[in-house]
């Protein structure tokens, strides 16, 4: 695998893991706000949303670890042109 392809793959994996985690947090806020505004708001809905942890979705840490691996691999790989 070329150095640039490995670096690109690592970068894309880290970005996709970060986007996935951000979308999960955004979804938690949207669901919390929708329940808070709706008819169940008088039933004592929590004052803050339940935020997902970093390890709750298995794809996020897998993407992060693979991304770091590919980036480190690209830095330690010899130039093969």
Structural notes for this entry:
The protein has 81 residues and is an all-alpha fold. It has one domain. The protein has two helices and no strands. The protein has helices spanning 3-37, 59-76. The longest helix has 35 residues, at 3-37. The mean pLDDT is 84.
Concise summary:
The chain is built from two helices and no strands. With 81 residues, the chain is mainly α.
How is the topology of this model organized?
Blueprint: H1 3-37, H2 59-76
Keywords: Membrane, Transmembrane, Transmembrane helix
Transmembrane segments: 58-76
The string of secondary-structure elements, in order, is HH
Q: Unreliable stretches, pLDDT < 50, 5 or more residues?
A: none
What class do helices, strands and sheet pairing give? mainly alpha
Mean pLDDT: 84
The helix tally amounts to 2
Helix content: 55-70%
Overall shape: it is rod-shaped
Question: Rg, please?
Answer: 19 Å
Number of strands: 0
The N- and C-terminal alpha carbons lie at a distance of 11 Å
Please report which band the strand proportion falls in: under 5%, 5-15%, 15-25%, 25-35%, 35-45% or over 45%: under 5%
Largest sheet: none
Return the domain count.
1
